[in-house]
# Entry
Amino acid sequence: MADDETLIEAARRARENALASFSQFKVGAALETADGQIITGCNIENATYGLTLCAERVAMFKALSEGHLRFTRIAIVANTDQPTPPCGACRQILWEFGGDLEVVLANLTEITGQHRLKDLLPLPFDARLL
Ligand code: THU
# Structure
């Protein structure tokens, strides 16, 4: 398993690839698989705005598309003093495919928050309810 700093550094590097020309708000994410691999993502905006993909979902969809199915942690990095927690859509996708992940929030220099996903998404809707 990577330590927190290794995972956060991967998210910081991924953030540099963010395509955020509309919001200027660059985000990087690094998802750790159960066997210790790190899959990264960054936010990708486009001219319609509404089709924007957050860094977290890019990382998760990349990971799933490469055959990874079990995950332990995600680091999320933005250049802000306040923590940047995942949006509602990302919480849902992370929960359905990653379960109760440890969520490490950081900026360019330090950790700004640490949570379990079940605390960020209480009373989730998921496949168990179908
Ligand atoms: N964004 C993320 O990528 N992840 C978050 O956790 C919060 C928001 C992106 C979406 C959009 O490109 C920009 O940040 C501003 O909302």
Summary: The helical segments are 4-15, 55-65, 88-98, 117-120.
